[in-house]
Amino acid sequence: MTTTFETPLKGLVGDKTAKALASHLDLHTAGDLIYHFPRRYDERGEHTDIRALEVGEQVTVMAQVQRTTVRPMRQRRGQLLEVTVGDGTGGTLTLTFFSQPWRERDLKPGRWGLFAGKVTEFRGKRQLNSPDYVLLDDETATSEVEEFAGALIPVYPAAAAVPTWVIARCVRVVLDTLAPPDDPLPASVRAERGLMGLDSALREIHRPGSRESLARARRRLKWDEAFAVQLTLAQRKHRAADWPARPRPCRDDGLLAAFDVSLPYELTDGQRRVGEEVAADLAAPHPMHRLLQGEVGSGKTLCALRAMLQVVDAGGQAAMLAPTEVLAAQHYRSILELLGPMARAGELGSAAEATRVALVTGSMGAAARRAALAEVASGAAGIVVGTHALLYEGVDFADLGLIVVDEQHRFGVEQRDALRAKADQPPHVLVMTATPIPRTVAMTVYGDLETSVLSQLPRGRSPIASHVVPAAEKPAFLDRAWRRLREEVAAGHQAYIVCPRIGEAVTGDEDEEAPPPEDASERRPPLAVLEVAPLLADGPLHGLRIGVLHGKLPADEKDAVMRDFAAGKLDVLVATTVIEVGVNVPNATMMMVLDADRFGVSQLHQLRGRVGRGSAPGLCLLVTEAAEGTPARERLDAVASTVDGFKLAELDLEQRREGDVLGAAQSGRRSHLRLLSLLRDADLIRDARTDAMALIAADPELAKHPALAATVHQLVDADRAEYLEKG
């Protein structure tokens, strides 16, 4: 019988095993199993570092039996077998078996084996309770032992019901009958890059003959992952270049020119460069697809507004899509404020009508909504700002020429396509993010987009000082922080206090804004806005004007709170991460992030960008109970040490589990980025990108190859960037 990637496992490994592989590891076909690569490789006589094991981990360890003890159990009848295994460097682990004293005959001192189970701790000692195991020098030579005949022993990502040796046995069964797969890489690429064939690579990664052949196999399979993604992105880019779009050229005497003259400050060099890139794209007969990433406060909104005015000059409309009503309202007010002085000065002449700005959100009243939609449909509103409400039926544009998507990772592909469909021809698209993206992530996630980067802050922006406040170790530091906040308010400034959670007073899924806890065993829940605000009002911030903002407030209340804070009617705003992006209050000079260890690196960087937006220096205090020396504390120290978002993005990537950076977040699937490291394989990704661009230019249909298409389906996201989603 010949096996192909599509062959169901049921007919190869038996019903029971196939069912376990499907239910516990989501492996259904021969191809699924063959691409379930080993997590690591042990070598006979080598040890696993037992001291590095963490409680709660499901592990497979290679260790040697040191001693066994059988004794009566205290609480019930029967005997307890305790087996001590070691790794040769002093690390030990206890294996416990209840009412199975006969296992002592197999587990004799000196024997090596693989032991699989969940790490627990009892009286300060780590142990595995009733682990599965296979002895590697078993004289009975069971079928499981045969899987480890080579020097290198593959250890697979496994489950309690499917240990690594069962997976290894199933892999051997499949490999013994697997027909050599069609190699999707052109022979010219394989020869130029020194890559082994696909069939050899798949066999060597499961049953390597040597470390050298294993390294060659891993390199080939990493290349496939990188190449598949780059080929698909290159194909998208190639096709987009063939789409027709209405050119929106720049005018010397239009709204944009008048707006630039009216600005009370000069554009930064970066803003000028980005403006030139965007202007050239908009003037082309093919749709712009550009990513604008910039540091917090670098002036992305101004760049977007200049692009929108260029489109309005050319007779079209521009829509800005924001992920939340708070951010949409903020953009609306910011755009009106930027355009206001120019319009009032009468510099626009008869064209002033075209600068009308409309706001469309889901919570608008019926009358306001009808009026806004009428302006959008007639074309009177040249600029339309809105949330997901822009996607609904009944929102019609006269001539949609440009879509600006802010914080684009919060929108799915279908949502962006729904807005594109409201234009007669493919509109130009500018997507923006304030989350700095490492170079390799940008190449891998956004490879089909042209990229512009704003790293220079506008003149007049003030520096932001960041410090970690170790509340548990030094309570006096926290007391000083509250006094420091009162000093800022006394000086006429305002402050943010950020909490991870909304609080118990909100029913239902009240904690959906909270970041997930790092450790499920944490003793106390994250601090909550609705619990912290009254404590502060009665305690260290007594007498100050305190407002509360979170995502579950009705839209009109959220807007009222933000208006009051922006107008200086509130001294302190206690909020969730709803203020993370877009909120611009130049008089807010201080931020305290409570339980800061509950947030990601990029998220903390985004949050502190809300201060230091005026002429006064900014201060960000990261309050934490995380102990010195822990990963959480080291992460906060790193955030406090630099305001360079791109350095922090690299740190963020280093600390994440490889393979979780890309993923189909909307589909609920885990990423299938199995081997490729976006941090360590930058050169490989760059080379794969070069080859993919050249090959797609020669053969646009190459990405449809079945083997590549399968990899692309697993790697190219449905929601673009889980990387940003987890920021």
Describe this structure as you would to a colleague.
The chain has 727 residues and is α/β, with parallel strands linked by helices. It has 24 helices and 21 strands. The strands form four sheets. A seven-stranded parallel sheet has the order 11-12-10-13-14-9-15, sandwiched between helices. A six-stranded parallel sheet has the order 16-21-20-17-19-18, with helices on both faces. A five-stranded mixed barrel has the order 2-3-4-6-5. Helix 8 packs across helix 22 (682-698), helix 8 (211-240) crosses helix 23 and helix 10 runs parallel beside helix 11. The chain is globular. This is Probable DNA 3'-5' helicase RecG. Keywords: ATP-binding, DNA damage, DNA repair, DNA-binding, Helicase, Hydrolase, Nucleotide-binding. Residues 477-654 form the Helicase C-terminal domain.
